[in-house]
């Protein structure tokens, strides 16, 4: 193999730069294209855990991630009067907060800083045409430029346009019956280092989480039909959110006040990507573009980091035949991905009660789960060797693969 084999990656969020990090380390010539005009440093809390944390250690980035911790100490379920019904500190196995809790934008910046000197980034453009030929792929970008690459990887998220060019409608975008909105709001006196989860009647959830920027990261989620709110303009999205937030109580007025001012507002249908294959020819899918597990699982970042590590490692391990590398990538990673995508029965509807009685019952259940006896039992059942992401054996590609 030419050690400077040219690979194009679509997407400069987490999966794309992580893949670029490993590929350039193995001697590949890497280009990343990103539709946004610059790295996108917005976004909500994410976590790096299990096998994803192992990859971060291999990259030498664990300490940087720790230093950018959001400071969240756990999550509290609260009622409309902001009274705490249940508390799940960081070490509670039934909680939402992990040890490596970081803002999405901070991880993007860490990955970009670790790759920008050795990787060519092209911002403000995206792939609009792909023509696979015998020895290369002819790529057309939105700005009119064309160039040939040996391989092209789609890492541009759940709604990947590059995936559509590669695989058409073959991957299944599985809607989970839930819509979500993310936004950043000014910090208020009621905010602490605890995340606060509030259930409102009519199957609505508000979640406020601390960050390390002096603001608060908010999310608003509600159950809905698949076709109800797809393909809306930003103004139409905001109108839907106003209607859904109306009468929710608690801190809903803060979110309503921020709807028109937050440039990073995000609204989408919560979905998973189920693709029968992640590669064909000279194309490959990575991260959310290939196997988005949904935010419900908390595994998206880990899958992105691990997928990047495995894909790059297999390409380095099989220098003469990218098809062998692609086959090994799928075989090694698919059981891990399928386990990560599994959701408990009734999810997400179980934690989105429609009545006030249902909300009261859910808060009582949360209090039981947060209790010390139940937490101890859960810790036993959720000990590391039982975690699906810790059951993945990560190869030591750096010692196996010959690279300069």
How would you sum up this structure, described in words?
- Keywords: Monooxygenase, Oxidoreductase.
- GO terms for molecular function: FAD binding; monooxygenase activity.
- It comes from Hymenobacter gummosus.
- Pfam families: FAD_binding_3.
- InterPro entries: FAD-bd, FAD/NAD-bd_sf, FAD_aromatic-hydroxylase.
- This protein has about 400 residues and is α/β, with parallel strands linked by helices.
- It has a domain at about 175-270: D-Amino Acid Oxidase, Chain A, domain 2, CATH 3.30.9.30.
- It has 13 helices and 18 strands.
- It has helices at about 15-25, 50-60, 60-65, 105-115, 160-165, 235-245, 250-260, 290, 300-315, 320-340, 355-370, 370-380, 395-400; strands spanning about 5-10, 30-35, 45, 75-80, 85-90, 100-105, 120-125, 125-130, 135-140, 145-150, 150-155, 170-185, 195-200, 205-210, 215-225, 265-275, 280, 285.
- The strands form 4 sheets. It has a 7-stranded mixed β-sheet, with helices on both faces. A 6-stranded mixed β-sheet has the order 7-2-1-11-18-17, with helices on both faces.
- α1 runs parallel beside α9.
- About 45% of the residues are buried.
- The model is unreliable at about 375-385 (pLDDT under 50).
């Amino acid at each position: 193999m030419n050690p400077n084999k040219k690979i194009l990656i679509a997407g400069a969020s987490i999966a794309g730069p992580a893949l670029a990090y490993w590929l350039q380390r193995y001697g590949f010539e890497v280009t990343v294209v990103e539709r946004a005009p610059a790295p996108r440093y917005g976004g909500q809390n994410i976590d790096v855990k299990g096998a994803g944390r192992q990859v971060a250690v291999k990259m030498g980035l664990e300490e940087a991630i720790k230093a950018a911790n959001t400071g969240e100490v756990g999550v509290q379920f609260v009622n409309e009067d902001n009274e705490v019904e249940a508390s799940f500190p960081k070490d509670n196995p039934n909680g939402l907060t992990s040890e490596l809790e970081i803002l999405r934008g901070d991880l993007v910046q860490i990955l970009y800083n670790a790759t920008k000197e050795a990787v060519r980034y092209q911002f403000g453009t995206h792939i609009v045409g792909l023509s696979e030929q015998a020895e290369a792929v002819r790529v057309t970008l939105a700005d009119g430029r064309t160039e040939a690459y040996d391989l092209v990887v789609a890492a541009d998220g759940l709604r990947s346009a590059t995936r559509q060019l590669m695989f058409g409608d073959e991957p299944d975008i599985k809607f989970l019956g839930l819509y979500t909105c993310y936004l950043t709001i000014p910090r208020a006196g009621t905010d602490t280092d605890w995340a606060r989860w509030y259930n409102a009647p009519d199957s609505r959830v508000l979640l406020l989480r601390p960050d390390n920027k002096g603001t608060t990261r908010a999310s608003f989620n509600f159950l809905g039909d698949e076709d109800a709110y797809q393909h809306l303009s930003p103004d139409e999205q905001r109108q839907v959110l106003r209607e859904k937030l109306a009468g929710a109580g608690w801190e809903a007025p803060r979110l309503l006040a921020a709807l028109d001012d937050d440039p990073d507002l995000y609204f989408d249908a919560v979905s998973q990507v189920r693709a029968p294959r992640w590669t064909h020819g000279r194309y490959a899918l990575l991260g959310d573009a290939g196997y988005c597990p949904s935010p419900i699982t908390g595994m998206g970042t880990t899958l992105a980091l691990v997928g990047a590590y495995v894909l790059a490692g297999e390409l380095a391990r099989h220098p003469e035949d990218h098809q062998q590398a692609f086959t090994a990538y799928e075989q090694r990673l698919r059981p891990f991905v399928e386990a990560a995508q599994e959701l408990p029965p009734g999810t997400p509807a179980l934690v989105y009660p429609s009545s006030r009685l249902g909300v009261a019952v859910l808060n009582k259940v949360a209090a039981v789960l947060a209790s010390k006896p139940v937490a101890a039992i859960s810790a036993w059942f959720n000990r590391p060797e039982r975690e699906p992401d810790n059951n993945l054996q990560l190869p030591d590609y750096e010692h196996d693969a010959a690279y300069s």
